Task: inverse folding
């Protein structure tokens, strides 16, 4: 009888231990300052406390990230959510946006010889991918100044922000690019100049957010909620003034930044009007503006209501978890 009880207890303990094991979750993002909450969540054990073994990977460009999500080699993508819309509209993938994140932190940077947008006629604009997100912002801004892509300037895909900055630094013929943190600060130190922040030129914009395959979300809803809760908690931790020094150190380590650039980057990230949106909230006005911009620049309208692209129920339940 005692042996049977011991055996039953051992089975229960094994089952409890298995249940307590963090679940692997493949998360893909861009290696820029916006990845700070991901690094923080891993380093501070926040993902682990939410039962998640976050497997972070970083993409070279948005095309590869979209391909990875489509074929199932990653579970969650964090990037400009325009990419999710493109997956739905162009690639016919059933992808859904589940969080917001920020308005882009984007500025339009140019070579020193460029005095105005008009000077970009006949020049090269470097982008990540030519048909999504920040490339469309750049095209819209240039269109407002009378310049049409393919006619008045050349669009050159080179990849993520780090690679766009590198392209401009190495070849002065690469005249312009949309850049975000920390590359805006690095560009300034290299002598490049900003013609302004994109939100000041075009208005609110829903940029970074998390998106997943809808079928994956339905099959892993509780895991997705735990990820969002952990991400929001990690964002709160990183932006807390009490953790400023630790966050700056993380930026220095992960992005290979000097302390002065890391400090300036952190100040902008912590500014709710220019940096992270508190709690990664979804900006509906910014999202509607993004859809309108995409429709205008890509020559077509979205097929169906805006609500088909996002499902914030996972986010709402994740925040409820944090409030308990």
Result:
């Amino acid at each position: 009888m005692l042996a049977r009880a011991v055996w039953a207890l051992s089975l229960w303990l094994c089952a409890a231990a298995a249940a307590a094991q963090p679940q692997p979750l493949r998360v893909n993002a861009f290696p820029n300052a916006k990845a700070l909450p991901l690094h923080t969540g891993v380093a501070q054990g926040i993902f682990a406390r939410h039962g998640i073994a976050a497997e972070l990977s970083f993409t070279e460009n948005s095309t590869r990230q979209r391909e990875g999500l489509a074929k199932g080699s990653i579970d969650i993508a964090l990037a400009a959510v325009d990419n999710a819309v493109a997956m739905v509209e162009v690639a016919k993938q059933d992808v859904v946006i589940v969080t917001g994140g920020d308005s882009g932190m984007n500025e339009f940077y140019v070579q020193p010889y460029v005095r105005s947008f008009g000077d970009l006629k006949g020049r090269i604009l470097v982008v990540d991918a030519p048909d999504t997100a920040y490339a469309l912002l750049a095209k819209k801004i240039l269109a407002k100044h009378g310049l049409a892509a393919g006619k008045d300037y050349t669009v050159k895909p080179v990849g993520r922000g780090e690679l766009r900055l590198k392209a401009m630094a190495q070849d002065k013929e690469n005249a312009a690019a949309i850049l975000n943190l920390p590359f805006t600060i690095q560009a300034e130190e290299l002598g490049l100049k900003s013609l302004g922040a994109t939100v000041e030129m075009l208005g609110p914009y829903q940029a970074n957010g998390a998106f997943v395959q809808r079928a994956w979300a339905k099959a892993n809803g509780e895991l997705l909620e735990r990820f969002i809760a952990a991400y929001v908690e990690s964002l709160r931790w990183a932006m807390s003034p009490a953790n400023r020094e630790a966050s700056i150190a993380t930026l220095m380590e992960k992005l290979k930044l000097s302390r002065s650039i890391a400090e300036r980057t952190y100040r902008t990230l912590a500014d709710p009007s220019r940096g992270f949106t508190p709690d990664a909230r979804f900006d509906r006005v910014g999202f509607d503006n993004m859809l309108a911009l995409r429709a205008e620049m890509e020559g077509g309208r979205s097929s169906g209501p805006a609500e088909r692209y996002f499902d914030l129920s996972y986010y709402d339940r994740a925040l409820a978890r944090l409030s308990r």
The radius of gyration is 21 Å.
